[in-house]
Amino acid sequence: MIFFFYLFAALAVIGGLGVVLYKNPVTSAFSLILSFLGLAALFIQLDAYLVGILQILVYAGAVMVLFLFIIMLLDIDKEEHRKMGGFSATGGILVGVGFFALVILVLWKSGVGYEQGLPALVGKGDNGTSDVHEIGRLLFSKYWFPIQMVGILLLSATVGVVVLSRKHLK
Amino acid sequence: MEPNILAWTILLLPLAVATLILFFGKNFPGVSALLSTGSALATLVLAVFLAHPELIGGDPGITGGVQSAAEADVQGIKSFPWIDLGENLRIDIGFKVNSLSQGMMLIVTFVGFLVHLFSLGYMKDDDGKARYFGGLALFMFSMTGIVLANNFVMMFIFWELVGVSSYILISHWYTKPSAADAAKKAFLTNRIGDFGFMIGILLLWKLCGSFYFNDIEKSASSINNLFLLNLSVILIFCGAIGKSAQVPLHVWLPDAMEGPTPVSALIHAATMVAAGVFMMARISFLVVTADVAANVITWIGVITAALAALMALQQDDIKKILAYSTLSQLGYMIMAQGLGAHGSEAGMFHLYTHAFFKALLFLGAGAVIYACHHEQNIWKMGGLFKKMPLTSITFALGTAALIAVPFSSGFWSKEHILEEVTHAAHIKGHMAVFWIGIGVAFLTPFYMTRLFIVAFLGRGRTNSADHAHEVSPIMLIPLILLAFVSLISVYFGVPEFLKSEGKSATFSDFHFNQTAIASMIALVAGIALASVFYLGKKSDPISGIPGVSVLRNKFYLDKIYQGIVRWFQDKVGSVLDWTDRSVIERVFSRIPAAGAMSLGALLRNFQVGNLQVYVFYIGIAVLALILLLIF
Amino acid sequence: MESTLTLQHFLLVSGILFAIGLAGVLARRNLLIIFMCLELMLSAANLSLVAFSRFGAENGLPDYDAQVMLFFIITVAAAEVAVGLAIIVALFRTRETTDVTQIDEMKF
Q1: Which residue of B has its CA nearest to A87?
Q2: Contact A114 C47 (CB under 8 A)
Q3: Per-residue model confidence (pLDDT) at position B65
Q4: Given CB 3.0 to 4.6 Å as the disulfide criterion, which of A61, A146, B91, B492 pairs with B83?
Q5: CB distance from A14 to chain C under 8 Å?
Q6: B499: which DSSP letter?
């Protein structure tokens, strides 16, 4: 169990580092897919099957394909001869490391559930309810309004994309 | 009809009409004119009912007047509570209906109605007809408010409304610069007086603790601080100086003749300028207790009478002459207000008679001007008697009343004032006042005879005078009515109302004594001298005499005022300029500007335009926030 | 470090991924890669949510409210990617570049 955690966590982190470090956008994109796969695996390890699948389908599948498609459409080269460096790299490392240090600090200070393992799940499985069932129920009862709003958001995003994609933007 | 409904209708009907006309009347000038005239007629009828409640089966005893807000309901006329801050400050829109206001309402509505009638003809083809009649209705509303007010604040509100409506009416032909200027001048000059009026009201409130005339009357005798009492009466009198155009604030009235002639008749002869006199009569109980103020009032009045009569001698504009004669007669009335209770009655008596014959004269002048194609210079008229005999006869009758030919209405009232002057021992130098009054009684027939001879007798001097013809009946009817009234108004019984201490001035008070002889001699001398000078002359024979030009130029008072205002403006302007440049500009604009600039320059360093630097700031800020949250 | 899998494990991974994403946003110049890093940060936050959901289980069921929120995040992120990429394309059409250092007009 813990082995798989380390495996997939390493996969996600290595993928993330790849995104940042590779110069070629295509390589970066593939690294991101890798990272997303690791994350999805972690979700599943946390018994969140639906969300894990969604992560793979939407992110690793649809979104990343869109990214790759755009990369190819724009025909972007590598960042030519531009070493990472200067102000932005320094700042990035500084902030990133600072943030990481703070996360450590917060975790160390809080300490809640540090020893606690995964709580048992009893109501799930063959005889109980399922993720899809529960999430669906919530979406159409408690969250009926946000889901309508999300629908509108998606619609406006669609319209926005169509407008933005016109050749001669006015 | 209850007195309650009656009083409120008299007040609010013209307002309703004015509102209707000013908002919706623009496209219906004919309807507006008839509406306004109708409301004037209605208020006239109602004013008659107000004066004679028995005519409509009412109780004749309501003439006692409304005492205060508490007693208003008892009297049957409800007040509208406007401001109520407890016992000390309570202001109503309420009515004081006593004989004084009943009589004044008769004058205002009667003259108002005739002016409306006359205007129907005079303003027939005017572009701003609806606006004009709306202004007239608004004026009637304001004047009614002044007359019926039972407290000073309400009176002051309507006082200002009268100012506004006169502004609207004087500047009726606002495209003419002189009319616009005259309106502005009238309004601003009145404002000066009104400031005094306002301060006086507040001072009196401090002394008496009330704005109500009746409360003030009750507590007036118990005021110990004579200095403040005198001061407040004089300050209140400032309002009358402005409205009734007394020296030194008289300058607006002659200029106001730029308005349409019926307006001059209504406002600047019969009603608005009478407001000051009426107001002083309203508080005559106070003037009686304030000796110094009474002296000031009488002397201002007599000085105005004399100066205005002198200025009238050399004017060529027919309306200007009438305007100065108005000033002069107003001087008489104001003078009378300082003479004690009987004097005040005599002043109101004169106001009453004067309202009719002056309205008549102005309307007559309007008819003449209309007939001569808007020619106002009397030296360009002449021979009008043959062309328009009816108008001329009515004009002559008005003149007779004005110059106090015996047995005309003006005669009784003027004699009465002069008579009171001889009795007024509390006025310092009251005999001097008397002789100046007699002097004015000599000047008045002089300039009026001059006007009549030059304009109506002899031969026409210009084409427009030659082609003049009698005016239409709608303009003649008011003239004839007014001429009739001017002669016999004293016998109507209306003066019975204009009393303040139970006794009113009427013609029956007349005694044939030295006063009467002196004024008759003055009258005859004035007419005779003017006839000698002006009969058959083509130009003014005395205008060449040195010193006379001072009169023509109105004692240069306008120029002096202009100079003072300009000097004052320059000085204030330069002080303000300095303040603006060196204080305000430095402290409030340059220093903050410099601060903003330097702060901006500092902050500009952070604004590099690079996206990632901005994200960096955000990152730093997020880190700082987290730090803040966990520690 | 013994075998119990705790909340801290997941939160730490989430934090690391988020920090990597943040550093990437700051360090890289290519708009597309910056955008990917943003997606990475979103997903890292998602991991925290799922972890909290699982470890906050009550009555034997995970906290589904958190997962619904995740659902919304994924949806909104998808919309965001679509619009963002459209903007990048439009920007590329006018500027011929995806280098953020070239796009430096966000100043007075």
Answers
A1: B613
A2: no
A3: 41
A4: B91
A5: no
A6: -
Residue at B301: amino acid letter: G
| Sign of the torsion angle spanned by Cα atoms B553, B558, B560, B562 | negative
Tell whether C36 is within 8 A of chain A (Cβ). Answer: yes
Q: What are phi and psi of A46, to 5 degrees?
A: -90, 20
- pLDDT (0 to 100) of residue B64: 42
**Chain B contact for A82, CB < 8 A?**
no
* pLDDT band, residue A37 (cuts 50/70/90): very high
- Structure confidence at residue A168 (pLDDT): 66
Kindly determine whether residue C40 and residue A19, on different chains, have CB atoms separated by under 8 Å: yes
Per-residue model confidence (pLDDT) at position B63? 43
Task: Tell me if A28 and C35 make a contact (CB, 8 A cut-off).
Answer: no
- Report the pLDDT value the prediction gives residue B157, as an integer from 0 to 100: 92
- Shortest CA distance to B239 belongs to which of B149, B355, B112? B149
CB-CB: which of A39, A115, A121 is closest to C60?
A121
Chain C residues touching B609 at Cβ < 8 A: 104-107
d(CA A127, CA B367): 111
pLDDT in tens, C38-52: 999 999 999 999 988
Q: How far is A166 from chain C (nearest CA, A)?
A: 8
Contact B378, B321 (CB under 8 A): yes
The residue whose two tokens read 């590329």 is C92
Task: Band the pLDDT of A40: cuts 50, 70, 90.
Answer: very high
B125, B102 contact by CB (below 8 A): no
Dihedral (CA of A77, A81, A86, A91) sign = positive
Q: Does A152 touch chain C (CB under 8 A)?
A: no
> For residues C17-46, b (16+ Cβ closer than 10 Å) or e, as one string?
bbbbbbbbbbbbbbbbbbbbbbbbbbbbeb
Which residues of chain C fall below pLDDT 50? Answer: 1
Least Cα distance to B326 among B290, B273, B378 occurs for B273
Contact B317, B377 (CB under 8 A): yes
Q: Answer with the residue of higher pLDDT: A9 or B504.
A: A9
What is the DSSP secondary-structure string of C6-34?
-HHHHHHHHHHHHHHHHHHHHH--BHHHH
Q: How far apart are CA B367 and CA B377, in angstroms?
A: 14
Judging contacts by C-beta atoms under 8 Å, the chain A residues touching residue C96 are: none
Q: Would an 8 Å CB–CB cutoff place B612 in contact with chain A?
A: yes
Contact yes or no for B269/B400 (Cβ under 8 A)? no
Q: Which two tokens stand for residue C75?
A: 């949806």
Amino acid at B146: I
> pTM of this prediction?
0.65
pLDDT tens sequence across B26-74:
888 888 888 888 998 999 888 888 877 776 665 544 444 433 333 444 4
Q: Rounded to whole angstroms, what are the CA distances from A49 to A60, A63, A131, A159, B508?
A: 15, 19, 7, 32, 118
Dihedral over Cα of C66, C67, C72, C73: its sign: positive
Q: What is the pLDDT of residue C72?
A: 92
ipTM over 0.95: no
Min distance C60 CA to chain B CA atoms (Å): 31
Provide the chain A residues 93-152 that lie in CB contact (below 8 A) with chain B. Answer: 95, 98-99, 102, 105-106, 109
Query: Could you give the CA distance from residue B97 to residue B74 in angstroms, rounded to a whole number?
Result: 13
The low-confidence residues of chain B, meaning pLDDT below 50, are 60-74, 500-503
- Is B282 strand, coil or helix? helix
3-state secondary structure of C58: strand
Mean pLDDT of chain A: 83
Max CA distance (Å), chain C: 57
**CB within 8 Å of B593: residues ≥ 6 apart:** none
Q: Does C90 touch chain A (CB under 8 A)?
A: yes
| Torsion sign, CA atoms B426, B432, B438, B440 | negative
The reported pLDDT for the residue numbered B66 is 38
